[in-house]
Automatic annotation (TrEMBL):
The gene is Gne. This is Bifunctional UDP-N-acetylglucosamine 2-epimerase/N-acetylmannosamine kinase. InterPro entries: ATPase_NBD, ROK, UDP-GlcNAc_Epase, UDP_GlcNAc_Epimerase_2_dom. One of its GO terms (biological process) is UDP-N-acetylglucosamine metabolic process. Its EC number is 2.7.1.60, 3.2.1.183.
Length: 669
């Protein structure tokens, strides 16, 4: 409502010129007259200012007037938020500005693809993210309750109110007014405290305001109707709302940063990319339909979405601006088909790599890494895994925040967080159900919510064995293989089963507990409480146990071996003794290899994979023994299975990264 300049002045900018260009009337003709009035006034202003670059934002009709004037006066134009798709005249205006602009800053990968498809020069496109996300993702206000009370009343609680923001659809004004009327009826029936913002000044807004007044919204005890809320306060209001409803781009873009539920009404935002927090009611033609949407969405909490930005857009844009050569020819170049490959470049024309934050929770160490789409570990951080839940979660968050900050410096765009952990995991909810004895205080732990809330990133969690299988499927021997099994041979024995290219979790998320396949009814006791499990024979812990028995009986060390007095006996000592001819150590390893081989035979007879991948530090010691047992014990129809040793250096981290990279790159909203 023509008062934005006050916010600019509050930010200590000097305004050189104020132009009044909005013609009142709020209809189609008034919009055209407003553009015409701006075109008449702008040449004189631009002649006096003589800018090197004109930054034009968004898709409003007044921005079109500015871009038209600058283009005709040979002024370079940088357009922010081009390439996006929505459902109104804004689409046409946005794309028209794109054709006039010389440089482009877009918010999403899809928007970048659209700009390339529109024949814009790929070298002049920057995928930066939305600048407002820099503010949103850093917005922390401990006194948010006072803001909520100022706008909605003293008795209102967080997550117990609604923010409504609905604008006219200029290509179908009559229908948008009817839809607004139905929305207000639904909100009145829903009976929750609601902050209603007035519509913008597009054609049809005057009629929408009449509807508000006809229904007494400004005097209704459940409603607060306002024309403007300062941005910093608006952030807090939507961040803590039970729901946002309407057809504003704010709902499908910015609000996703907080995971606040959104109901998007009608066609005004058709084509926009949205997070899972948005429920679309495309044909909002009845009050009941809108009311049902409110009942479904109100009070929910979704993971924070970063489709539109990661909080680092402004530094990228500044770098881009500084790189512009004002001596290069002003004439635009269009890159007509064939279009270049869809490669996102920053201003140094270096690929900003799509990456994941991978977290590996082991019995001893806690590791976090930045992993690229190609499986390269760009940066890795390692700390001892704390013994308590509180200390462990605090360290995970600290390491992830540090890695996410470093990602910008190493030119990586973090798509999400993948966590590999021991124990039984519900990957749908991101909860560790039961832990192994190697990780203490790690049962019934919700990992997704606190990490997603802190980092504003989607989070995936799975068992370490499943993650190893995912790593093989994306980066290792399992790539392109329809049915295979991965066995981890390390401190414990675990694994994952891939059937028809998909990971099997089982009805209670207990599938692929391969270490607990029983191969002897009277075998050694396992940590799970049973007897004769593969893990009780072939795990690192089992080998360490047998090595200690030999050492206690002075039967471990042979010529060529030595141990310091304080040195702890390990599986490595047993393997070394066997290599140096210790027959008792050789026998223990042979028994372990046989037990593992029998377990693999059981797997072959159960799921019939075409490939078995042995992973972990003990894989090389077992591979030949496993092949021998298969030849001796397996049915002839499965004896031709391939048994290989993994060539992946770090399957746990790569598997955790695969949780993110596989999901985010194939998901269609």
């Amino acid at each position: 409502f023509s008062n934005t300049y006050r916010m600019i002045e509050q930010d200590d900018f000097d305004i050189h010129t104020r132009l009044h260009t909005i013609v009142r009337g709020e209809d189609e003709a008034a919009m055209v007259e407003s553009v015409g009035l701006a075109l008449v006034k702008l040449p004189d202003v631009l002649n006096r200012l003589k800018p090197d670059i004109m930054i034009v934002h968004g898709d409003r009709f007044d921005a079109l007037a500015l871009a038209t004037s600058a283009a005709l006066m040979n002024i370079r134009i940088l357009h922010i938020e081009g390439g996006e798709v929505s459902g109104t005249i804004d689409d046409s205006i946005r794309h028209a500005i794109t054709k006039l602009a010389h440089y482009h800053v877009c918010c999403t990968r899809s928007a970048e693809q659209h700009l390339i498809a529109m024949c814009e020069d790929h070298d002049r496109i920057l995928l930066a993210g939305c600048p407002s996300y820099d503010k949103l993702l850093s917005a922390k206000n401990k006194d948010y309750m006072s803001i909520i009370r100022v706008w909605l009343g003293e008795d209102v609680k967080t997550r117990d109110y609604i923010v409504a923001l609905q604008h006219p659809v200029t290509t179908d004004i009559k229908h948008s007014i009817k839809m607004f009327e139905l929305t207000l009826d639904a909100l009145i029936s829903f009976n929750k405290r609601t902050l209603v913002l007035f519509p913008n000044v597009d054609a049809g807004s005057k009629e929408m305001v009449r509807v508000m007044r006809k229904k007494g919204i400004e005097h209704h005890p459940n409603f607060r109707a306002v024309k403007h809320v300062p941005f910093d306060q608006f952030i807090q209001l939507v961040a803590h709302a039970g729901c946002m409803i309407g057809n504003s781009s704010c709902g499908v873009r910015e609000v996703g940063a907080f995971g606040t539920p959104v109901i998007n009404l009608g066609t005004r935002q058709t084509g926009r990319e949205t997070g899972e927090n948005v429920l679309h009611v495309r044909d909002a033609d009845t009050q009941d339909k809108i009311l049902h949407a409110l009942q479904l969405q109100f009070g929910k909490q979704y993971p924070c979405s970063k489709i539109y930005g990661d909080g680092n857009a402004v530094p990228r844009i500044l770098k881009f601006l500084k790189s512009i050569d004002l001596k290069e020819p002003l004439q635009k170049k269009f890159c007509f088909p064939p279009v270049k490959d869809n490669i996102s470049q920053d201003i140094d024309h270096i690929l900003e790599t799509q990456s994941a934050l991978a977290v590996d929770l082991g019995g001893t160490n806690l590791r976090v890494a930045i992993v690229s789409m190609k499986g390269e570990i760009v940066k890795k951080y390692t700390q001892l895994n704390p013994k308590t839940y509180e200390d462990r979660l605090e360290l995970i968050l600290k390491m992830c925040v540090e890695a996410a900050s470093e990602a910008v410096n190493v030119n990586c765009r973090i798509l999400g967080v993948g966590i590999s952990t021991g124990g039984r995991v519900n990957p749908r909810e991101g909860i560790v159900l039961h832990s192994t004895k190697l990780i203490q205080e790690w049962s019934s732990v919700d990992l997704r919510t606190p990490i997603s809330d802190a980092l504003h990133l989607p989070v995936w969690v799975d068992n370490d064995g499943n993650c190893a299988a995912l790593a093989e499927r994306k980066f290792g021997h399992g790539k392109g293989v329809e049915n295979f099994v991965t066995l981890i041979t390390g401190t414990g024995i675990g694994g994952g089963i891939v059937h028809q290219h998909e990971l099997i979790h089982g009805s209670s998320f207990c599938a692929a507990e391969l270490g607990h396949i029983v191969v002897s009814l009277d075998g050694p006791e396992c940590l799970c409480g049973s007897q004769g499990c593969i893990e009780a024979y072939a795990s690192g812990i089992a080998l360490q146990r047998e090595a200690k028995k030999l050492h206690d009986d002075d039967l471990l060390l042979v010529e060529g071996m030595s141990m310091k007095k304080e040195e702890i006996v390990s599986a490595a000592h047993l393997i070394q003794a066997a290599k140096l001819g210790n027959t008792k150590a050789e026998s223990i390893l042979r028994t372990a290899g046989t037990a593992l081989g029998l377990g693999v035979v059981n797997i072959l007879h159960t799921v019939n994979p075409s490939l078995v991948i042995l992973s972990g530090v003990l894989a090389n010691h077992y591979v030949n023994a496993v092949k021998d047992v298969i030849n001796q014990q397996a049915l002839s129809s499965v004896k031709n299975v391939d048994v290989v040793v993994s060539n992946l250096a770090d399957p746990a981290l790569l598997g955790a990264a695969s949780l993110v990279l596989d999901y985010t790159t194939r998901r269609i909203y």
